[in-house]
Amino acid sequence: MRALAYAAGVARVVVEVMLKPEIHDPQGEAIAAACQRLGFGQVLGVRQGKRFEVEISGPAGADEVGQIRALAAELLANPVIEEFSVHAPESS
Fold first, then answer.
1. Average of pLDDT values for 37-53?
2. Which of 28, 62, 73, 82 could form a disulfide with 46 if both were Cys (CB 3.0 to 4.6 A apart)?
């Protein structure tokens, strides 16, 4: 997955937050069970997460991505039960 610059002077950085693997995910289990009931037998498991698209002014360079990483650690994810990744824009 990649983050995209979508307008002049504005960049979008994607933050994905997931429960840590050792944390029980009842919503993911419910979705996996529904998959089985709907005939998607190849689905063995599902983990539920969150996706944030953060718009910033200017390009998303290393410093800006670092700031978004700090934002994710402080506000968007609960470090006790969640882990996150930040996707920087790809060069065109």
1. 97
2. 28
